[in-house]
Design goal:
Layout (H helix, E strand, L loop, with lengths): L1 E5 L20 E2 L2 E2 H10 L6 E6 L4 H6 L4 H9 L3 H12 L2 E5 L6 H6 L10 E4 L3 E2 L5 H11 L4 E7 L9 E9 L9 E9 L10 E9 L2 H7 L11 H8 L5 E5 L6 E2 L3 H14 L4 H8 L8
Parallel strand pairs: 1-4, 1-6, 4-5, 8-12
Antiparallel strand pairs: 2-3, 6-11, 7-13, 8-11, 9-10, 10-12
Length: 295
């Protein structure tokens, strides 16, 4: 099984910083977000490679995962063996690249990876969201295995007054102590984009992790443009429901770290610094007068 990480976007919310540095390379505790996503994918049993959908305008992502003997040797010569090992590790990850040079939507980005999938089910992990515990996709695969390899997406509960911001699932809860609590599993009957609260079939939205049947690639290849005149992955998933079952695993939204906006990324960095005992006190000291906000 392969995993796909779409990473061709311009990162306009972070401009001007992302004019030179792709947002996927912004660090959290010294490690670029995209590497954390790659390692999350590779933690799933059976995943033996990650395909990053990149743009030719973002060569820095490939450079991060490329071998750099000179840098390794320089670090080792200075006694910085741990740093040399971390640089070497990134280059040893089984990562390959395909390209999306036109911004034609998430579905179009995923379709660019089709030649690398070998007609097998595959994971999609959005590149600005990572799960430190590396457990979400593993649990999704377990649900898929229990249901004859069916497609599975991760969903989380959102307050009623916020459902109009998201794509919401319709269906029925088939296991779990409470329908919208973490651990529940749903059989999906539909996907509704940004419904009004009174029309929402549930309060569960897709959080950026998918395990999809290879059939989705055939559907994406014939998918008409949708919202924003782009090829939407959700539209193809709705068509997939006509012929195949699809399930949803309810997760705790707090499991993941969303770095998709400057404020969200800053919050994730602050949280990581506070949670790490090796940086907590130094981080609080660096905050100065603002430290009283987190003590």
């Amino acid at each position: 099984m392969k995993a796909v990480i779409p990473a061709a976007g311009l990162g306009t919310r972070f401009l001007p910083a992302t004019k030179a540095v792709p947002k996927e390379l912004l660090p959290v505790q010294g490690l670029p977000v995209i590497q954390q996503v790659v390692e999350e994918a590779l933690a799933v049993d059976g995943v033996n490679g990650v395909v990053i959908v990149n743009s030719h305008e973002k060569p820095a992502i490939e450079q991060h995962f490329a071998k750099d003997n000179a840098l390794e040797q320089t670090l080792e010569s200075r006694g910085k063996d741990a740093l040399a090992s971390s640089v070497k590790h990134a280059a040893e990850l089984p990562v390959s690249f395909v390209y999306q040079d036109e911004a034609l939507g998430l579905g179009h980005a995923v379709l660019q990876a089709e030649p690398e999938m070998d007609g097998e089910p595959f994971l999609i992990l959005l590149g600005d969201y990572f799960v430190p515990g590396h457990d979400m996709c593993r649990r999704m695969k377990a649900v898929s295995d229990e249901h004859n390899g069916a497609s599975v997406i991760a969903v989380a509960a959102v307050p009623e007054d916020q459902v109009s911001r998201y794509g919401i699932i319709a269906g029925e809860c088939i296991s779990g102590d409470a329908a919208e609590e973490p651990g529940a599993v749903w059989r999906i009957s539909g996907l509704v984009e940004k419904p009004q609260p009174e029309d929402a079939p549930s309060h569960l939205f897709i959080v950026g992790r998918y395990l999809l049947s290879p059939r989705i690639m055939d559907l994406l290849a014939t998918q008409e443009p949708g919202a924003g005149n782009e090829i939407q992955l959700t539209d193809a998933m709705v068509r997939l429901l006509d012929t195949e079952e699809m399930y949803a695993l309810v997760v705790d939204v707090d499991e993941g770290r969303d770095t998709g906006t400057p404020a969200a990324w800053a919050g994730v960095c602050a949280r990581a610094a506070l949670e790490d005992s090796s940086t907590r006190e130094a981080f609080i000291e660096a905050l100065g007068d603002a430290a009283k906000l987190v003590r």
